[in-house]
Amino acid sequence: MTDETIRIGDIAHAPIDGCEAIFCDLDGCLVSGGHVYPNVREFVANHADRLWIVSNNSSDTAETLSSRIAAVGLAVAAERILLAGEQAVRRIAATHPGAAVSLYAEAPVRDLARSLGLQIEDRKPDIALLARAAGFSLRDLGRLIDQVQDGATLIVTNIDTVHPDARGRPVPETGAVVAAIRACDPSIRFTSIGKPAPDLVELALGRSGAAPAACVFIGDNDGTDGVAARAAGVRFVHLRRMTANGAPASGTFVMPDSAAAKGVA
Q1: CB distance 59 to 194 below 8 Å
Q2: What is residue 34's predicted lDDT score, i.e. its pLDDT?
Q3: DSSP 260
Q4: What are the distances in angstroms from CA 244 to CA 31, 83, 104, 170, 251?
Q5: pTM score of the predicted model
Q6: Rounded to whole angstroms, how far apart are CA atoms 253 and 56?
Q7: Which of 81, 126, 146, 219 has the fewest CB atoms in 10 Å of its CB?
Q8: Residue 241 in contact with residue 252, Cβ under 8 Å?
Q9: Average pLDDT of span 209-235
C-alpha cells in the first residue's frame, strides 16, 4: 500500500484504476467554500457508482449536504455521504438512547438529534457534543467547560482546527474550540469520531462492501485524511496545493502535532 501525491485540480488523474470504492474528503479536496475545484464535476459524474464522500463536516446531515453540493453541480446521493457530525449523533443515539445531550451545533444536526430521540438539555446533560457552530461564543465556552466539570462526557465531532474558504484562507473549526477548552482546563478529556480516527472510513468500508485493499482515499490533509485512511488499511492519495516548481504551497493546512492526530485528547 503506497501513498501518492497529486496536485489539486488534477483529480482526474488520481490513481483509481481497479478500485471498487473511492472515498473523498470534501472541503479542500472537491470544494473550497462555494468554489468547485477544476475537473471535480467531471470526476464526480464519471465515478458516481463507486464514489463516497467521507468528511469531517459537522454542520450538515448527509441529506442537507447532498442538496447543497447538488446546487454547484456535484450529484452525490445522501446514502453515499458520511459526515462526522451526523455520525457522532447517530452513535450517541445508538449507545445512549434518550440521553440528555447539550448540543453545540447547527440546526440540521440539532434536528437530527431530536428525531433520534435524544433530549436536548443544557442544565445538566449526560453528554456535551461539540460540533461546528458558527455562533459559538465565550459564554458557550464557559458553559461547556462547566458541563464537563459537572460530569458530562465531552464528545467532539472532529479535531480539525480550520477548513479552507473559497480563497484558501482558514475558517475556524471545532479543533480551534478544543484548543480553547484545553487552554482553560488542560485536564479535560474527550473522544472524537472524525478523522484522523478511522471510524468514518470504516463505516464507508462497511457500507460499500469493499475490502480496504480495493479502495482509495483522496484527501488534502495527511494529518487527518491520511492518518484515518492508513489506520483503516486504505491507500491514500494526497491532493496538495503546489507552486509552479512542484513544491507544496505554503497554504496547505495540516494538523499541528501528532497528539491531535490520535482523535482523543
Answers
A1: no
A2: 77
A3: G
A4: 21, 34, 42, 22, 14
A5: 0.87
A6: 14
A7: 146
A8: yes
A9: 94
User: Distance between CA 58 and CA 106 in Å, rounded?
Assistant: 8
Is 22 within 8 Å of 48 (Cβ atoms)? no
Question: pLDDT tens-digit profile of 135-157?
Answer: 999 999 999 999 999 999 999 99
Burial annotation 114-123 (CB, 10 A radius, 16+ → b, else e) = eeeebeebee
- 21 touches 225 (CB < 8 A): no
Q: Which amino acid is at 135?
A: G
The phi-psi region of residue 234 (left if phi > 0; otherwise alpha if psi is between -120 and 50; otherwise beta) is beta
Q: What is the pLDDT of residues 80-113, one digit of tens each?
A: 999 999 999 999 999 999 999 999 999 999 999 9
Residue 93, phi then psi, degrees to nearest 5:
-65, -35
Q: Domains in the chain and their CATH numbers?
A: 4-84+195-253 (3.40.50.1000), 97-192 (3.40.50.1000)
Length of the chain: 265
Alpha carbons 165 and 48: distance in angstroms, whole number: 25
Query: Do residues 173 and 57 lie in contact, with contact meaning Cβ atoms separated by under 8 Å?
Result: no
Residue 137 grid cell:
461564543
**β-sheet bridge partners, residue 35:** 32
Residues 6+ away with beta carbon under 8 Å from 127:
92, 96, 99, 100, 101, 102, 152, 153, 154, 155
pLDDT band at 241 (very low <50, low <70, confident <90, very high): low
> Phi and psi of 168, rounded to 5°?
85, 10
Q: Are strands 21-24 and 215-219 parallel, antiparallel or unpaired?
A: parallel
The CA-CA-CA angle for residues 50, 78, 27, to 5°, reads: 80
Higher pLDDT, 188 or 15: 188
